[in-house]
From TrEMBL:
Residue span, Response regulatory domain: 13-129
Keyword field: DNA-binding, Phosphoprotein
PANTHER family, sorted: TRANSCRIPTIONAL REGULATORY PROTEIN DESR (PTHR43214:SF42), TWO-COMPONENT RESPONSE REGULATOR (PTHR43214)
GO BP annotations listed: phosphorelay signal transduction system; regulation of DNA-templated transcription
HTH luxR-type domain residues: 143-208
Taxonomic lineage of the native organism: Bacteria, Bacillati, Actinomycetota, Actinomycetes, Pseudonocardiales
This protein's record includes keyword Amino-acid biosynthesis: no
Protein name from the UniProt record: Response regulator containing a CheY-like receiver domain and an HTH DNA-binding domain
Amino acid sequence: MTGHDGEHTDGISVVLAEDQTMVVEAFAELLGLQPDITVQAIATNGAEALDAVAEHDPDVLVADIEMPRGTGLDVAAELRRRGSRTRVLIVTTFARSGYLRRALNAGVTGYVLKDSPITELADALRTVHAGGTVIAPELALAAWDQADQLTDRERELVRLVGEGATNRTIAQQLHLAEGTVRNYLSTAMTKLDARNRTDAARIARERGWI
């Protein structure tokens, strides 16, 4: 994690979390040009993001979704659990309604796409900091069209399938009977209209449900 000026100012203090170094450094440089925004730290994975928020207590965490050691949604949910005052703004390439639903459930108050101009990102930061909510307009209408039908347990199993785990491995990891795992996955495949367990993981990921 690369540290920046950690002093609190009268403006908006920010931690950036993004696993692509060039992207996050560009964000940091461009946001640093805004007179009211101070980038305190850069994190390249979910664990670093949590550490940086704990250390710097920023007003806003700007995070990608897909990161190692914890997604942006995982980080948002954990910050909510901890009662952190830091508000979370997701900046991602994934225009998937399922991701937006999960983000809102995790307490995220901003969700914008990476191809937005930096001025829009800065404005979104200001809105989130002021207590408002910012949702990319192309996502707002689509968000409720396709409801996530999976239960938390089904979602967990399908995610593990997507990571290459066998039914036996999943059963051992989650302390379930192998038949129970098959039943959960069978129900998930039916809900997703999937041909097999691998197809179920693909469909769920495409919809942003896992």
